[in-house]
C-alpha cells in the first residue's frame, strides 16, 4: 500500500574513508608463444592471480619444456617474488620482433586500463637490436597511449645475448636514446640458463617484473630491502632474488652467460651508466640483487629511472581523476575583476590537495604544491592552467664512510 513519504532518507557512501585496492602493481607479460593446445587467444589478455591460473590454461613447466620456452618460468617468478601480483598474460605470434606486435596488442592494453607496466619475452630481438627497439616501443606504443591520456609506467625488454660476448665498452649506450619509459634487462639466472641450450641467452624479465610488482612505486628495483614484504618474508633484513631451497639465483650472469661477479667494478659501472639492468651480489653479503632501474634516456632527464616514471604517472592519474568531474562545470567569477572567484580557486586546490595528500600518507612522495593563478579568463579555447609540483623521494645508491682510529670519543 502506498503511503505518504514525510521523511526521505538517502543512503550515502564514502563516509568510512575506505579505498579500492591499489592497481599500482598490475602488470602484463607479452609473450611470443605457441598457442597449440592452450586455452588462450592470440593478442587477448588472460588475467592471472596466481601461477595456477596459467596452469589451468595449459601453460606449465611441461609446456615450457616441450616448446623450449620460458613463459611459465617467467610467470612463476613473478608470483614467487610478488605473491599478490595481478598479471595479464598476452600471447602473440612467434618468430617476430617486439616491434611487429605493438599495433596488435594496443587494443588489449587499452581494454585493460589497470595495466601499469609490461615486459616482453620470447621475441627475436637481441641486445644489438635494442637501440632501435627501445625507441620504437616508446614512440609507437607508450607515446601513442600517452596521447590518449593512458600512462604506462615502464616496459621491460629482453637484451638477449647475440652470440658474442657482451663487453661493457662495446655495447650501445642506451642513455643516448629517447625512450624514458623503456628499460633493457640483461640479467639471467645461471640455473635456468643451464636447463637447455635454447636458454643460454635468455634474460630474466619475469624476475624483474616480480621485483617491480612487489615494490612501492617510489622504490628502486635494486633496493636491498623493500617496504612491504610478502607474509613469509616479514622480519627479514633484505629481499634478494635468491631462493636457496629452489636453487634460484645462487649466482647471476649477463645474458651472454658471463658471470657478473667475474666482471670488474669498472665494467659493471659502465653497464649501469649505459642503461642496462643486470644482477649481481655485494661483497661479503649474501644474495643476488638487481643493479639499478635505469631507463633508456639521458641521465640528466627527470625520468631516467623507473621509479621516477611510476611516481609521476600516479600523480598524473590522481590529478586527472580529481579534475574530470569539474570539466564543463560552472565557474563563478569575481564581478569586480572578471577573473575566477577566490572561493572557486580554493575549492579546486582543496580537491587536489586532498587527493595528492594520499601519496604522502602512503609514503610515496615527500611533498607537493598546487598553484592556480586566479587571473585567468576561461573559454572553449583557453583551458584553466594549474601548476603542480611533486617532491619525489631520493634513492641512496651507495654509502661512503670515513672510518679511522681515535684515542678517545669526544
What report would you give on this structure?
28% of the residues lie in helices and 14% in strands. With 410 residues, it is α/β, with parallel strands linked by helices. The protein has a seven-stranded mixed β-sheet, sandwiched between helices. A two-stranded antiparallel sheet has the order 7-8. The protein has a two-stranded antiparallel ribbon with strand order 10-11. Strand 10 and strand 11 (285-290) form a beta hairpin.
Relevant terms:
single chain, 410 residues, alpha/beta, seven-stranded mixed sheet, two-stranded antiparallel ribbon, 14% strand, globular
Characterize this entry briefly.
The chain contains 10 helices and 13 strands. It has 410 residues and is of the alpha/beta class.
Structural class: alpha/beta
What would you call the quaternary organization?
A: single chain
Number of strands: 13
The share of residues in extended strands comes to: 5-15%
Q: Any idea how many domains? A: 2
* Fraction in helix: 25-40%
Net shape? globular
**Rg, please?**
24 Å
> Distance between termini?
89 Å
Low-confidence stretches: none
Mean pLDDT over the residues: 95
How many individual helices?
A: 10
Write the layout of secondary structure elements.
Layout lengths: L25 E7 L13 E3 L2 H6 L4 H7 L3 H11 L4 E7 L5 H14 L5 E5 L8 H17 L7 E5 L23 E4 L1 E2 L1 H4 L11 H9 L39 E2 L10 H9 L2 E2 L1 E4 L2 E6 L15 H18 L18 H20 L5 E6 L13 E6 L19
Helix pairs in contact: 3-7, 4-5, 9-10
Amino acid at each position: 500500500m502506498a503511503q505518504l513519504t514525510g521523511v526521505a532518507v538517502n543512503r550515502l557512501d564514502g563516509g568510512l574513508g575506505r579505498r579500492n585496492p591499489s592497481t599500482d602493481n598490475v602488470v602484463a607479460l607479452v609473450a611470443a608463444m605457441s598457442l597449440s593446445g592452450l586455452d588462450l587467444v592470440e593478442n587477448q589478455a588472460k588475467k592471472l592471480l596466481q601461477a595456477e591460473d596459467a596452469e589451468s590454461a595449459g601453460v606449465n613447466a611441461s609446456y615450457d619444456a616441450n616448446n623450449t620456452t620460458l613463459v611459465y618460468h617467467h610467470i612463476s617468478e613473478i608470483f614467487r617474488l610478488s605473491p599478490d601480483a595481478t598479471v595479464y598474460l598476452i600471447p602473440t605470434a612467434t618468430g617476430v620482433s617486439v616491434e611487429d606486435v605493438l599495433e596488435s596488442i594496443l587494443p588489449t592494453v587499452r581494454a585493460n586500463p589497470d595495466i601499469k607496466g609490461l615486459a616482453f619475452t620470447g621475441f627475436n630481438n637481441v641486445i644489438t637490436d635494442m637501440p632501435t627497439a627501445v625507441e620504437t616501443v616508446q614512440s609507437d606504443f607508450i607515446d601513442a597511449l600517452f596521447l590518449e591520456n593512458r600512462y604506462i609506467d615502464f616496459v621491460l625488454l629482453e637484451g638477449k645475448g647475440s652470440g658474442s660476448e657482451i663487453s661493457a665498452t662495446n655495447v650501445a649506450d642506451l642513455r643516448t636514446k629517447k625512450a624514458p619509459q623503456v628499460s633493457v634487462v640483461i640479467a639471467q639466472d645461471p640455473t635456468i640458463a643451464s636447463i637447455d641450450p635454447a636458454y643460454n641467452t635468455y634474460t630474466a624479465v619475469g624476475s624483474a617484473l616480480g621485483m617491480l610488482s612487489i615494490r612501492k612505486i617510489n622504490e628502486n628495483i635494486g633496493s636491498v630491502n623493500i617496504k612491504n614484504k610478502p607474509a613469509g618474508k616479514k622480519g627479514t633484513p633484505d629481499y634478494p632474488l635468491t631462493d636457496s631451497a629452489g636453487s634460484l639465483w645462487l649466482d647471476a650472469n649477463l645474458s651472454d652467460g658471463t658471470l657478473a661477479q667475474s666482471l670488474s667494478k669498472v665494467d659493471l659501472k659502465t653497464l649501469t651508466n649505459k642503461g642496462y639492468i643486470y644482477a649481481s651480489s655485494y661483497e661479503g653479503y649474501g644474495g643476488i640483487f638487481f643493479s639499478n632501474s635505469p631507463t633508456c634516456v639521458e641521465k640528466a632527464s627527470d625520468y631516467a629511472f623507473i621509479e621516477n616514471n611510476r611516481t609521476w604517472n600516479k600523480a598524473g592519474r590522481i590529478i586527472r581523476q580529481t579534475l574530470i568531474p569539474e570539466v564543463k562545470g560552472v565557474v563563478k567569477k569575481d564581478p569586480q575583476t572578471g577573473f575566477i572567484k577566490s572561493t572557486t580557486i580554493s575549492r579546486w586546490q582543496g580537491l587536489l590537495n586532498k587527493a595528492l595528500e594520499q601519496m604522502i600518507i602512503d609514503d610515496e612522495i615527500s611533498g607537493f604544491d598546487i598553484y592556480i593563478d586566479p587571473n585567468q579568463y576561461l573559454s572553449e579555447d583557453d583551458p584553466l592552467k594549474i601548476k603542480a609540483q611533486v617532491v619525489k623521494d631520493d634513492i641512496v645508491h651507495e654509502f661512503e664512510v670515513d672510518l679511522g682510529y681515535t684515542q678517545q670519543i669526544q
